[in-house]
Structure formats: C-alpha cells, structure tokens
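pls design
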C-alpha cells in the first residue's frame, strides 16, 4: 500500500480549501499532501491510519494532520452496507505559509503559531473531549461561510484549538521519514503485509522477504526509516485492531486478545497497557 501524493487545488479567491463529505469512500486510500489537514467527523466512525499509527475513531473525532504525513480513514462497514447510515465529515486544507507573515507574527497570534509548531513537531494533533464541541461548531461554520467571515472563523478555530487543554500530540513517524520512492515502496509492502497477516505469527525472515532483504538488513532499514523496531510496529497494529474491537463491544476481552493476533493474554495485556496507557477493561468502559 504505497501512499499517493495528491495536490490540493486552490484558487485565486480563497486562501484555504474547505468541504463537507457525505460519502464513506472519499479519499479512502493512503495519501499525503503538502497542506495541513483539519478534519472533523461529525458523523462517522472506523479506523484511523496516520503514518504507522492505527487507532479507532468515533463521532465527534477532530484531528490536525501535518504536511506530508500519509493518512486515511477507513470507515466502518455499516456506512457502506446500510444507506441509512449517515456520514458527515468536514475537511479543511491549508498551507502553513498562510501564517508566515508580519500580521500573524503579532503577539495576539502566538497561540496559533504554537499550535502549528506543535503539529509540525509531532506530526498530528488530536482533540480530546475538552473543547471539542466548540471547535467542531466552528469548523462546520467555516465550511458554510464565504468571504472575510470564513477566514475570520478559521483564525478563531485555530485559536480555539490553541486554548484547548485537551489537545494530544502524537508522533507517527513511519512513512513520513522515508526519503526516497524506493523506501516508500518498501515500507508500503511491509505495511500491507502486516495489515493482512497480523492475526498470526509474523517472524523477521517472513517480513524481510517482502522487501527482498535479509532479516538483519531489514531490521536496520525499518529502524532507520520508522525510528522504531518492527516488533513495536506489529504490536501497535495489533493493539489498534484490539481497540477497534473493544469499542464495538461485540467480543469479550479474551476473544479480542486472540482475534488481534496474541496467543497469550499476559502478553496482550502488557502491550495494550504499554501502548494505550490503559487496561483493556478500562478502555472498553470508556468507549461505552
């Protein structure tokens, strides 16, 4: 699954791009672009793929993704199977250079500059419950507004994000650090093989064969491009899938353990807590 570069089309009459999506298959593939992306899932849930991070998301999810970060959102099957399942996703694309001028250098815009800098350093920002409703409301108004009011609402929105206490910064390295097309192709092959086979044991010899190198060379390559070991990445994929299953609340925790690729519950519990900071039971209760 090689990430595809897409060009965000702007025009002479707008300083940034905004839209609302009501179909579940819009940009439903791994892609990246030079613009930052602010996205609000007013209605929609599924799995979020940003860099090499995979976590579930639900209605109300808000994210600010940095430039050139491969990402996509795989909406749950219900949105494809049932026409009555509504999708309402608000998207804003903008160039960080929009704020690189003397006007936005004024002290009053320090909060916005801090937010954009934090996004640049951590690859993506995610809003928690605190302040999410206010930001979501502003995003919907931006998409529906025109002229100077639209720009002023956008400035207010970024300022509001800067004031939110519930903003979490996530580092999703992976594809972002791949410097060449060859490295992107190789990482894409690793990514695809892992997603297709995470439920069973994947040893280093097998995953190294997907990019035609020895296990030792593969370990060096993967660590250099993703800044983490393949074992760590595989555990993140498995725990991401476990989080999705726990949020759906259709399986017991023990069933989730085995369905996400772990044969030992102790190992599942240890990795789940290490990656999410919570126990599987606490995570499941918070989802419901």
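designed seq:
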């Amino acid at each position: 699954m090689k990430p595809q570069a897409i060009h965000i089309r702007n025009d002479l009459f707008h300083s940034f791009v905004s839209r609302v999506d009501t179909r579940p298959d819009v940009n439903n593939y791994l892609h990246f672009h030079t613009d930052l992306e602010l996205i609000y899932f007013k209605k929609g849930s599924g799995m979020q793929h940003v860099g090499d991070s995979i976590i579930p998301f639900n209605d109300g999810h808000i994210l600010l993704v940095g430039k050139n970060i491969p990402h996509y959102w795989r909406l749950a099957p219900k949105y494809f199977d049932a026409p009555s399942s509504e999708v309402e996703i608000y998207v804003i694309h903008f160039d960080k250079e929009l704020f690189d001028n003397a006007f936005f250098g004024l002290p009053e815009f320090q909060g916005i500059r801090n937010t954009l800098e934090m996004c640049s350093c951590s690859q993506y920002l995610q809003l928690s419950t605190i302040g999410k409703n206010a930001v979501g409301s502003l995003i919907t108004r931006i998409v529906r507004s025109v002229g100077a009011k639209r720009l002023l609402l956008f400035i207010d929105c970024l300022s509001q994000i800067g004031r939110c206490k519930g903003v979490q910064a996530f580092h999703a390295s992976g594809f972002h650090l791949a410097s060449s097309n060859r490295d992107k192709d190789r990482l894409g092959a690793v990514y695809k093989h892992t997603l297709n086979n995470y439920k069973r044991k994947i040893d280093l010899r097998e995953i190294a064969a997907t990019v035609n190198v020895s296990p030792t060379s593969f370990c060096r390559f993967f660590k250099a491009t993703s800044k983490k070991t393949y074992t760590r990445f595989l555990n993140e994929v498995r725990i991401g899938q476990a989080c999705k299953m726990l949020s759906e609340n259709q399986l017991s925790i023990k069933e989730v353990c085995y369905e996400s690729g772990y044969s030992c519950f102790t190992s599942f519990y240890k990795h789940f807590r290490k990656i999410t900071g919570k126990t599987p039971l606490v995570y499941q209760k918070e989802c419901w």
